[in-house]
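Lesson 9: reading folded outputs for more than one chain in a single document. The general rule is that every protein is listed as its sequence immediately followed by its structure tokens, and records are never interleaved. Here is the first one.
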Amino acid sequence: MFVFSCCFSATKTLIFRRSVINLDSDRAPEIVQADDLFFGGTMNSKKLLLTVVIVLISGGFFDVISQTRIRFARGRTSASVSGTLGGGASRSYVLGARRGQVFSGNISSKNGCVKFTEGATSSSFITEPGDNYVRITNYCRTQTSFIMTVSINFGSD
């Protein structure tokens, strides 16, 4: 979940903070990423509105709308996705599953730049019914191509 907040500092600098909050049901909510953006000078209403729009667009606010759905071919439990990510960019994927299935994913990229947002090139978790979300990030400064392979299987229980 993204949370945006802003305030003025004592030096009349506008500070926006974009926080990514983990709402894991087993634990209390925690901030897993926070980015501060600073804008100096006095703010009139037009400048403030323009600043808010720029921050929302550049901060990934609309990424929720542009999620890519991963669909499995009939009878298949795995799929591969390839693409490129700009330096520092992130992309979200959504895939449907039943409760208790196991999601597994692996990413390969040049120099290991593209990783799941947790910072690893592999990820696994027990799914919830319906849509499940995966986010990847390019931790390098340059555009990088990647291949991500994901699978959904029933656990061994």
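And here is the second record, again sequence then tokens.
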Amino acid sequence: MTANRQPPPGVILGGVLIVIGLSVLAVRYLDVFAGESIWPLFIIGPGLLMIVLGLILPNVPMLVGGCVVATIGGILAWQNQTGLWATWAWIWALIPIASGVGSLLGGIRTGDREARNSGLWQIVIGVALLAVFFLFFEQFIGLSGGEIPVPEWAMPAVLMGLGVLILLRDFFERPDPDPTT
């Protein structure tokens, strides 16, 4: 599919119907969104719709926006269920991760190496920010009053995860082989 050619309307309609169907199933069969806690779906749903459309069209900015909107909806759903609203002090770091996931998906979908590499680097930075702020606010300050226990293996796991992401980033940033040789 070329960049100027739009997908058939049936493809867009099919993607929209799939997102709506998944949302209905989530509400009906997952007890997460019951009663008054259904409101985050009004944020998650449009985000998922933007992701589906961004993959179909393909449109990298729509993917990035969809990932960010769906992530914010997911954060709000979790906070609404747990009542841990003070976690915004550190959980905001998921937003750069979501942006990176959108860029990475868009780069993979469009074959744009620069978008893919940029997305991977955003993920690495976001994970580092999340780990540092989470451990600071939950481990040292105890922001949530111990309601979010931090296991002893958390810091080594975060360090290993960052190492894997940096290795992947370096792998993706290798220059293309010279086609003339």
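What the second record shows: The first helix runs from residue 9 to 29.
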